[in-house]
Every structure is written in structure tokens, then in C-alpha cells.
């Protein structure tokens, strides 16, 4: 037979282990409740939040870049450079707004990749502006070709979202 002290020590050990287990279970339940209380964003919800932002950017770029191709052909490179610079700033602002929108948990990586491509598009617009300002039409044309490729990759990354305005089509502007 075990002594009372040994049984008492065994009970205390059991209670400590049970208390630790209960604490972990309570923590897990609490975290589960906290995440269950937060509404998960769906693809449709993200699309509804993103499309107005992209629409505003698309309309701004249509105004900013209207006639830029003709300016480049006529040799008005400084004016075209300013337009590409403004388009780049507008797109960077759009990216900042899009990053602020809550994303669906299952699509975090996909949307991060997409936003990376869109940021690269803004950088390519900026580089195009720099080349035009320096009078390098050929290098600027190369940036536009790269811009089209990056835009295609961006659109492929979020194909499942069925975007209308968030599909970037540089051919429409350049």
C-alpha cells in the first residue's frame, strides 16, 4: 500500500498536468472563438471591394495616357514622360489601397503575388517615363513590352477572381 504522502504527491502531479491541459484547451477554444467571430472574406467580397478602386485607376489612366502613343511618334517625349510618370504614381496609389483590403485566407499568397506584379507594373511605367525623358524611345518601347508581359502574368495570377477592372491591359493605354 502507498503512503498518504505518495498518493497526495501523485494527485498534485495529476492536477498540475490536468490544469495545464485545461489551460491549453481553454486557450485553443478562445482562439477559435476569436477567429470565428471575425468574418472571413470571400473571393466575391474581395472582388466587390477591389473593383471600384481598380475602376477609378483605369479611368484615371485612360485620361492620363490618352494620346500618349501619338506624342511619342511625334517626338514629344517630355510630355509623354510626364504622362507615364503620372500613371505610375496613380498605380502605386491603387496598389496601396488594394493592400489595405482584407484578403480571403485561402488566397493570401495569390493576392500577394498579384499585388507584386501590379507594383512591378508601376515601376515599369516609371522606367518608361525615365527613358522617354532621356530621349530613349527604343528603351521605352522595351519597357512597354515588359509591361505587357508583367500585366499578363498579373492577370493570370488572379484569373479565378473574374475581375473586370482589376485586369490590367496596358495595350489599352500605350
Task: Kindly describe this structure.
With 174 residues, the protein is mainly alpha-helical. It folds into two domains: 1-38; 43-172. Helix content is 76%, strand content 0%. It is built from six helices and no strands. The protein has helices spanning 4-37, 43-64, 68-73, 77-99, 108-133, 137-157. The relative contact order is 0.12.
SSE blueprint and pairings:
Elements: H1 4-37, H2 43-64, H3 68-73, H4 77-99, H5 108-133, H6 137-157
Helix pairs in contact: 2-4, 4-5, 5-6
Query: How many discrete structural domains?
Result: 2
Strand segment tally: 0
Global mean pLDDT: 84
Major sheet: none
Q: What is Rg?
A: 27 Å
Helix proportion range: over 70%
Strand content: under 5%
Summarize the structure.
With 174 residues, the chain is mainly α. It has helices spanning 4-37, 43-64, 68-73, 77-99, 108-133, 137-157.
Notable traits:
single chain; 174 residues; mainly alpha; 2 domains; 6 helices
Amino acid at each position: 500500500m502507498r503512503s498518504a504522502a505518495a498518493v497526495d504527491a501523485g494527485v498534485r502531479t495529476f492536477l498540475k498536468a490536468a490544469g495545464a491541459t485545461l489551460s491549453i484547451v481553454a486557450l485553443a477554444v478562445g482562439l477559435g472563438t476569436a477567429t470565428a467571430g471575425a468574418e472571413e472574406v470571400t473571393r466575391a467580397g474581395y472582388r466587390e471591394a477591389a473593383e471600384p478602386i481598380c475602376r477609378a485607376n483605369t479611368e484615371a489612366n485612360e485620361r492620363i495616357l490618352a494620346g500618349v502613343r501619338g506624342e511619342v511618334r511625334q517626338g514629344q517625349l517630355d510630355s509623354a514622360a510626364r504622362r507615364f510618370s503620372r500613371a505610375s504614381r496613380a498605380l502605386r496609389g491603387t496598389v496601396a489601397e488594394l493592400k489595405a483590403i482584407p484578403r480571403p485566407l485561402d488566397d493570401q499568397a495569390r493576392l500577394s503575388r498579384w499585388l507584386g506584379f501590379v507594383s512591378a507594373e508601376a515601376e515599369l511605367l516609371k522606367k518608361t517615363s525615365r527613358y522617354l525623358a532621356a530621349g530613349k524611345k527604343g528603351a521605352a518601347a522595351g519597357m512597354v513590352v515588359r509591361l505587357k508581359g508583367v500585366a499578363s502574368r498579373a492577370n493570370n495570377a488572379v484569373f479565378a477572381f473574374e475581375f473586370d477592372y482589376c485586369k490590367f491591359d496596358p495595350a489599352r493605354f500605350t
